[in-house]
Every structure is written in C-alpha cells, then in structure tokens.
Automatic annotation (TrEMBL):
Keywords: Cell inner membrane, Cell membrane, Membrane, Methylation, Transmembrane, Transmembrane helix
Pfam family, one: N_methyl
TM spans (from-to): 20-42
Xref: InterPro entries: N_methyl_site, Pilin-like, T2SS_GspH
Keyword hit for Disulfide bond: no
Protein name, entry field: Type II secretion system protein H
SUPFAM superfamilies: Pili subunits
Domain General secretion pathway GspH: 54-134
Organism: Limnobacter litoralis
Amino acid sequence: MVMTVIEACSPEKAARGFSLIELMVTLAVAGVMLMVAVPSFGNLMLSSQLTSLSNELVSALNSARVEAVKRNAPVEVCSDNTCAVTTTDMSNGHPLRIKAGLDDMVDPISVRAVRHLTYSGQGLAYANGQNAPFSGLVADLFSDRLNTQGHRCIYVEVGAVVSTCTDNQNCGYFNGRPNASCH
C-alpha cells in the first residue's frame, strides 16, 4: 500500500506571486495582441465615421422632404458651401435650404457623385433641370484606407425612398437599380 503525503503550502510559498519569466511572457503576449488589435480598431473608427456621415446625409434628405410637405413649398438639400442660406423668408421666393453637413469630413474620407436635390411640396425629389422625380445615386462616401466595405452609397428612388448600402466598389446606378450588392 502506497501512501501519498499531501504537503500543505506554507503561507510564504502561497503569497510569492509571479516570477520574472511569467511576467515577461505575459507582457509579450499582451504586446502581440495590441499590435494585432490597433490597426483593426483604426479601421473600425474609420468605418464608424463613414456610417455617421452617411446617416447625416440621410437625415438631411428626410428632413428636407418632411419640411417641403409641411410648408407645401420647395426645399433644397445641398452638401457644400453653395448652401450658405439655411433659413429663408418665404416671401422673397427663395426655397428653404438644408445643408447636408458633409463639410465635417476629415481625411481620409472623401465623397463623389453628390447630387443637389430639391424636394417639392408633394415630397418628391428632383435634380436640377429634371421634370421627373429623381431616382439614382445621391452620394458615394468612401475611404481608400478601408480594404473592404469602404463605400457608403446613398440612393433616392422614385423621388422619395432614401436607401443606403455598404459596398466594396464604387457606388453606381445601373439599369435603374443600385449596385448588385446594394439591393
């Protein structure tokens, strides 16, 4: 018969802590994890900024539509400094203008294909010089620093329905429909 003797740890042994080697290994593992996580966190922040800007533009489009219906008067949505007037005296015949807020963009975020739209009192969007309600790409917000999902596409369909999508490629409008990945 073999007897096993279990020796109780003395209080001095139990409270010793970590050895220097254990501490160095832990720090090395934490350093490797940080080197992997920091670039991903940067991409996450950039993607979040893109989404936030596209949400601002969608909000401006929806606000313009609601305001046009409420006033039964035209309301313009502009995305740059051509929209210096943000309120108006309706007696002078100028439409209300709502600024889309895209001037808050910071490098490396860019925008292409921005459309200047005017909502009628019926709530339909028209591009300058068009008589039919607008259907198409309003803006393509993008960053070349994102390898995937680097484009936020904002569309208006049939003059009223605002939709967005995230895409790997340039936003487009083909055969009356958004990119294949956006519908």
